[in-house]
Amino acid sequence: PRDKHGNVVSVGTHVRLIGLTGKWLEQLPDDEKADVLSMIGETFEVEEIDEFGQAWVRKSWFDTAGGLCNSHSIGLESHEMEVASAAAA
What is the pTM of this model? Predict the structure, then answer.
């Protein structure tokens, strides 16, 4: 896959999440949606490229008071990411 600028994206590439689209986002419960939307603007390492050409990234949120951890993995489309410079990653 490629990012919004046409740069090649592969496993291990650091990408900045620049936006999210899709019906799946509207179907999330409000608390999960807030977590996922908080990922916009952050940089992630691509963990997997699926058969549809989506670059998968993940973020975890730790609740130290409750001792819980929540995480979300998101498959990104080209227009939702851009390769981050090595300095930003």
Answer: 0.85
Residue 38 Cα distances to 2, 35, 62, 66, 70, angstroms: 23, 5, 14, 20, 13
Residues in the chain: 89
Tell how far CA 63 is from the center of its chain. 20
Residue 20, classified by CB atoms within 10 Å of its CB into exposed (0-12), middle (13-18) or buried (19+), is: middle
For 13-58, what is each residue's pLDDT tens digit? 999 999 998 888 889 999 889 889 999 999 999 999 999 999 999 9
- In the numeric block, the tokens 């990408």 are attached to 15
Q: Which residues pair with 76 in a beta bridge?
A: 55
